[in-house]
User: Fold this.
Amino acid sequence: QAKSAGRNGFCFFDAQMNADTRERLSLELDLRQALVRGEFVLHYQPIVDIHNGRLLAAEALVRWQHPVLGMIAPDRFIRVAEQSGLIVEIGEWVLNEACRQMMLWQAAGLPRFVVSVNLSAVQFRRGNLEALIGSALSRFGLNPSCLELELTESILLQDSAAFIDMLYRLKTLGVKLSIDDFGTGYSNLAYLQRFRVDKLKIDQSFVRTLLGNTQDQAIVTAIIQMAKSLNLLTTAEGIEDDSIRRLLAELGCDQGQGYLFARPLPAQEFMAFAQRTQLPA
Ligand code: C2E
Ligand code: MG
Ligand code: MG
Ligand code: MG
Assistant:
């Protein structure tokens, strides 16, 4: 009896696995076509001074404008893009598009702000990132200090000589580095200095529950203190209400990002946001 149940279980698992594989493969094909057809778009979320709301940066966040399914969030396709290696090409598109948009904003006379893009570990392993970034910056006539690269803590685990060399060369190019979702992964303090990181982005899982949760408060306080002693900036992600913003400001956090200020916006709407917040109060 147990044996037949086991066999059934196995068969079911097998069928399920095939279904998963089929789904992944078809998503992979769709992603490939999406690239060719130009179905990816970037939205930009404001990052502001947590004390006065002044616009400091825009994080470029990719979306897939699917002809039938509509706007698809990155959580639904980035993992498959990474597994298939397609993230290298998608990431290249993101980088170029973000730089092109930054050039347009600067040409339109918006005050200077930083544009940040998310990088996947796969791009470090496969891509010629330094050349890619260097040529995107020069193609659009941008100052490297206007571009920020967001890495996750897991990227820093690739402790290879080639990886360290790449980070060093990116810093030499003049771009900024930040650690995304900070606090959720493995963090080695020595790494932060060795890699000459500029900023820690405190993960939203600590920020959302900050008011009621003394443990999250302790963690966020420690991150901010540590950042200060290492001379790093901090951005809190996922700020949805003003009482949390105020507490973070009191704790000494520098920058904020979240629905309280704005959601990720299409480029046009971002421009309107930038012009609005630029107006004297
Ligand atoms: P992330 O880099 O940590 O980006 C922040 C995410 O938090 C965004 O989700 C943003 O919409 C969301 N968010 C911001 N403020 C709030 C808030 O107040 N409340 C809530 N509930 N959410 C907020 P999004 O755009 O869905 O992106 C999800 C993740 O996908 C990103 O997390 C990033 O890891 C990844 N991603 C996005 N674009 C790219 C890309 O171009 N390349 C790579 N490799 N990954 C990307
Ligand atoms: Mg990010
Ligand atoms: Mg994040
Ligand atoms: Mg995230």
